[in-house]
Amino acid sequence: MLEKQATGAIDALRRVIFLVCASLCLHGTPSSAEDALEFDVGGLMFGDLYHLPSHHTPEGDNATGAVLRRIFLTTDVRYGHDWTGRLRFEAFHEGAFENYELSHRIQDLGVGKKLAGHQISGGLIPTISFDLIEAFWGKRYLMRTAPDMQGIAARDLGISAKGKLNQSGKWSYRAMYGSSETWEADKNPHDKFMGAMTWRPTPDVLFDAYVDHEARPGNFDRSTYQLFAAQQTEPYSLGLLYTYQDRQEDPTLELAALMGVVHFSDKIDLITQVQRLFQPSIKGNDIAYIPFDPSATATNIVAGIEYQLSDHFFITPNIVYTHYGVNPQGVRPEDDLHLRLTFFFNYE
Fold first, then answer.
1. What is the DSSP secondary-structure string of 289-306?
2. What does residue 343 show for φ and ψ, rounded to 5 degrees?
3. CA distances from 28 to 24, 76, 111, 122 (A)
4. Pairing mode, if any, of strands 268-277 and 83-93?
5. Which DSSP string corresponds to 230-269?
6. For 161-171, what is each residue's pLDDT tens digit?
7. Residue 117 and residue 265: Cα distance in Å, rounded?
8. pTM for the complete prediction?
9. Angle CA 308–312–314, to nearest 5
């Protein structure tokens, strides 16, 4: 018992040291005596009223309920023109049907500094794996992006750099090192190196290429290759994603996704995302809220109409439908159908 407590204390100390070192790496001299420390405090929450007429699991079949999926409380800090920081607390539902308990954790705890046209960040921060994709999608409250759902880490304890590669800004890069240390929202206890490059031939079109490598014990290293193309205009947004992850002796992850938003008016958006899993889901029934049968390939569709009732409140009637292929046993799992009324309060 004492040995476990000592190990936990050492691990906690190492995490704190990592955060302090990341901050020191970003440390610099204030640009002027007029620099002031500013705080913005905000939050958001979202959840669903739902009914599942059919589902591949006994727990999900005909489940009905209401769930508050996420509550965030965020403090953003600015110091002068160059320094930023974020502390975000999260209360979250684990994803079980007809269950109403919430857990909590720190989701973000990081600092950033602008340095010669580049942004350097460190601490418990979002990874660059699908940050650009998620920013384009902008509807995470309704449905996460496909790589996020299938277990590619959204947070890591590490350091990142982002910036332009030329004066026009048509070419830009992102790079990140994720430490083997883990803390709170970070679930990746292995060193991970990530890199991406983006080309914007016009202001409303982008092409992004991403790669990473994660060394794991034994013959289980993971290497990810990802391509993303998108167009974002005033009347609509359209994005196409392909992700392939070689997991050596573990099952391969391979998927494609189409994301679209059509703006009917200032208050109404038509939203859809289609995911195609070319291999059975690697997370399967461990995916919160929208579990996948782990034995078969799948096509998942979410479609909804978002109504903005006020500056801060949105409701979205939507359906989530998952169709499965035939598994190696010659059986096609029962399709999943979620009928949802999703609500979203945004004060950030």
1. SS---TTS-EEEEEEEEE
2. -115, 150
3. 8, 19, 12, 14
4. unpaired
5. EEE-SSEEEEEEEEEEE-TTSPPEEEEEEEEEEE-SSSEE
6. 999 999 888 99
7. 36
8. 0.89
9. 35
Annotate 234-266 with b (16+ C-beta within 10 A) or e (fewer): eeebebebbbbbebeeeeebbbbbebbbeeeee
Distance CA 115, CA 112 (A): 10
Residue 166 one-letter amino acid:
N
Provide the residue type at 157 as one letter. Answer: L
What percentage of the chain exceeds 70 in pLDDT? 90
| Alpha carbon distance 62, 55 (integer Å) | 7
Hey, what are 55's tokens?
Answer: 């589902």
pLDDT of 162-206, one tens digit each?
Answer: 999 998 889 999 999 999 998 888 988 999 999 999 999 999 999
* CA 188/CA 230 separation, integer angstroms: 29
Q: What is the gyration radius of the CA atoms in the chain, in angstroms?
A: 21
In this structure, the number of other CB atoms found within 10 A of the CB of residue 159 comes to 21
Residue in the block written with tokens 């005033």: 234
3.30.70.360, 3.40.1190.20, 2.40.160.10, 3.40.640.10: CATH of 2-346: 2.40.160.10
* Contact call for residues 111 and 23 (beta carbons, < 8 A): yes
Q: Which residue bears the tokens 């880490």?
A: 153
Residue 298 three-state SS: strand
Which two tokens mark 262?
A: 């059509």
What distance in Å separates the CA atoms of residue 313 and residue 338, rounded to the nearest whole number? 22
Burial class (CB in 10 A: 0-12, 13-18, 19+), 150: buried
Torsion on CA atoms 94, 150, 324, 316, rounded to nearest 10:
60
